[in-house]
Hints:
Layout: H1 2-27, H2 34-39, H3 45-55, H4 61-73, H5 87-122, H6 127-141, H7 144-158, H8 171-199, H9 203-210, H10 215-244, H11 247-252, H12 258-267, H13 271-299
Helix pairs in contact: 1-13, 5-6, 5-8, 5-10, 5-13, 6-8, 7-8, 8-10, 9-10, 10-13, 12-13
Amino acid sequence: MTAYILKRLLGVLPTLLIVAVLVFFFVHLLPGDPARLAAGAEADEQTVELVRRDLGLDQPMHKQFMRFIGGVLQGDFGHSIRTKRPVIDELADRFPYTFWLTLAAMGWSVVIGLGIGIVAAVNRNRWPDRLGMALAVSGISFPSFALGLLLITVFAVGLGWLPTVGAESWRHYILPSLTLGAGVAAVMARFTRASFVEVLHEDYIRTARAKGVPERQVVLKHALRNALIPVVTMMGLQFGFLLGGSIVVEKVFNWPGLGRLLVDAVEMRDYPVIQAEVLLFSMQFILINLVVDVLYGVINPTIRYK
């Protein structure tokens, strides 16, 4: 397995290089002049030109790209145009908030999604199945920003139970994590149901039932492990999407994470921050997929890596 992991890690390098090239050129296609935004609306052309020279934006595109790649290889993503701080410090300050929010959302969505999916599969074509799938479809269909505003209206404005801005305590995580995880829980429920329905029709399940094994043991011991393999794949992908897709939720709840940082960077044409965040999200997806592949061997020891 060690050789497999090293091989996969080496394959990360060309992928990140392609992502770096694409994000660099697409970011520079964004409308607006970052030098003008950094200098201010009242600045004259001479001041704007000085700012442009200070940021290195007056150089040819290929020289800017080589400077960007050279910095990335040394772990230096430059300085934020907006705050003048090193980009790596900006990311380090914001990453924990997004990570813990994503972890909280993933935790409860996995528990609820797996529970609804298993119950729906065991009670296929009966009312628990129909109710669970109706909730799942509703969760997928409801936009996250609309759900966030609804939760704020009910639990913060109406009842006054929970805060809506900031991340000072565990109570601040409740509404954003519910909003962020609702869609994942819905997808998890549907995916788990489909996987369990398929596994419950296998011969070894029928044999276990014929031997008089209790239904609870059949579901949790015999069916769960085999049904989890495709579910774990989906969980890994969803976790990556949550890390990179918390932008809307963070904006709604004014959450001090990477999502809001990216929105602010796009508004200010803060090229170094945008480039660094996209590379970070890409790396997260790659590493999460690697972890998922390794988990296959933990769930099912018969899987071998070459």
